[in-house]
Amino acid sequence: MRKIMKRVLGRSFSSSCFKRSVQSSFTRLKSLTDHRRRRFSEDLNEVVSLLQEDLQELALSRCEQMIKHQNLVDAYGLIEGYLNLLIERIHLLGRERECPDELKEAVSSVIFAASRWKDFTELGDVKSIFTSQFGKEFTARAVELRNNNRVNQSIIQKLSAKKPDTKSKMNLLKLIASDKGIVVKLNEEGKLSKSIQIRKRGREKNKVVTATTSSYQTRNSSRRPKR
C-alpha cells in the first residue's frame, strides 16, 4: 500500500490506484458491518432477556449501545454507496484540480468518515488520494465541518459522539417489547410510573415484613420450654 500511496501522492490522479484503495475499503466495510450486526444481535437478545425478567430500566440502558451499533451499520452503508458512485464517475475525478460539484457530497462525506474512523486505514488511503487531488483546504473543510462542507447530514448524525436521547431509546425498547408481547411500564423519562413504583415498594415492604415475622416466630418457637 505504501508504494501505491507514493505514486498517488504525486500530481497526477491514478485511476488504478484509486480503484485498489476503494476495493480494499469495500472488504473492510463488509467486515466492520458484519461485526456490528453481530453485536447488535447479541445486545438485542440481552434486552429481551431483561424485559422478560421485568428489568425494564436496565433494558432501556442497553438500548443505547444497540442504537450506536445501528448508527455505524447505517454509516457504513452510506459510505459504501458513495464509494460505488465514485467508482462509476471515476472519469470525472482526475479531470480537474477542483472536485466536480456533482461529486462533492460523496467525496466530502468519505473524507469526513475517514477522519472519524482512525483505525479504518483503507478509507484513510482514499482520503489521502482526495487530499492530493483536491488540496488540503478542501479536506479540512470536510473534516472540520466548515461552511459549505457538503458532508451528508445523516453521516454527521450517525457518527456523532453524542449519546442517544431517552426518546430514541424508548422507541427502540417499545418496538422490541411489542414484538415479544411485553408491555412497557416506563414513562417518557425512562422511569417506572409512580403507581407502579408505589406497588413495587409495597410488595418489597410486604416481603420484608413477612421475612421479619417468620424469623421472629422461628426464634420464639425455639425458646418455648419443653413439656
UniProtKB/TrEMBL annotation:
<dbReference type="GO" id="GO:0015031">
    <property type="term" value="P:protein transport"/>
</dbReference>
<dbReference type="GO" id="GO:0008104">
    <property type="term" value="P:intracellular protein localization"/>
</dbReference>
<feature type="region of interest" description="Disordered">
    <location>
        <begin position="203"/>
        <end position="227"/>
    </location>
</feature>
<dbReference type="Pfam" id="PF03398">
    <property type="entry name" value="Ist1"/>
</dbReference>
<dbReference type="InterPro" id="IPR005061">
    <property type="entry name" value="Ist1"/>
</dbReference>
<comment type="similarity">
    <text>Belongs to the IST1 family.</text>
</comment>
<dbReference type="InterPro" id="IPR042277">
    <property type="entry name" value="IST1-like"/>
</dbReference>
<feature type="compositionally biased region" description="Polar residues">
    <location>
        <begin position="209"/>
        <end position="220"/>
    </location>
</feature>
<protein>
    <submittedName>
        <fullName>Uncharacterized protein</fullName>
    </submittedName>
</protein>
